[in-house]
Write a structure and sequence with these properties.
Strand content: 15-25%
CATH class: Mainly Beta
Radius of gyration: 17 Å
Number of helices: 8
CATH topology: putative xylanase like fold
Distance between the termini: 28 Å
Helix content: 25-40%
Largest sheet: 8 strands, antiparallel
């Protein structure tokens, strides 16, 4: 998603990471539900979900943190955060990684004046309530998940909220597995059962679940809050 110059809504379907996998899958499904199939329709939907309030202004309008993406897209009625309903517990989020490490981000190196705005956004995120299903409770909760649920994997790493994302997938044995873009294996794969995957990484503390909401066929792509 990164590139030189001002922010644009970039798309590269030849290679996916853990965010663009669920992002592209969600937006393709949404435009098909709306009876729209053009590339422009896809870009409009991607812009609506990727940017705060559905509006691209500059780099800081992108929903960089997964917790911010879930919050904003719940307000836009794109998804519903069902974590608390599944027995999730409140957990503190203290994001600061981007403002404390601007050198990792091309846009922040090119436009250092954005760092202060990013820090303000982080402070806003930290003031909200957040919910997570702890790693020891994922096994019991996963039976209530559906194919297509967006899975955000919480981390204990300083300054971050989540370190990985993917999609729930119910296989032929009705087991919930994780469909994700693996940075280690360099490909998209249908992995083991979700709870086993979470338990396999020590820094994973649990999951947050965002369930995509149904959309009806409409005459135009909405860019307003419902």
């Amino acid at each position: 998603l990164e590139g030189k110059g001002p922010e644009i809504c970039r798309v590269d379907l030849t290679g996916l990471d853990c965010v663009t996998l669920y992002e592209n899958a969600l937006c393709l499904a949404r435009i098909l539900k709306k009876g729209r199939t053009s590339y422009d329709d896809f870009i409009a939907e991607l812009t609506f979900t990727r940017y705060r309030k559905g509006v691209l202004t500059d780099y800081t309008s992108r929903l960089h943190y997964t917790s911010d993406w879930i919050h904003d897209n719940e307000r836009k009625k794109v998804v519903k955060n069902i974590t608390r309903d599944l027995g999730g517990e409140e957990f503190p989020v203290r994001v600061s990684f981007m403002s404390e490490n601007p050198g990792y981000y091309q846009a922040l190196r090119e436009f250092p004046e954005f760092v202060g705005t990013i820090a303000e956004i982080e402070q806003g995120i930290n003031k909200r309530k957040h919910w997570v299903i702890s790693r020891k409770k994922v096994k019991g909760a996963q039976d209530h998940l559906r194919t297509g649920d967006i899975i955000a994997v919480a981390t204990e790493k300083k300054g971050l909220d989540y370190s990985h994302t993917g999609l729930a997938f119910q296989d032929e044995k009705r087991k919930i597995r994780l469909l994700h873009a693996s940075s280690i294996k360099k490909k998209v794969l249908l992995d083991t059962e979700l709870y086993r995957y979470i338990q396999s990484v020590e820094t994973y503390t649990g999951i947050t679940v965002a369930r995509p909401l149904e959309v009806g066929k409409i005459h135009g792509l909405t860019n307003q809050f419902a």
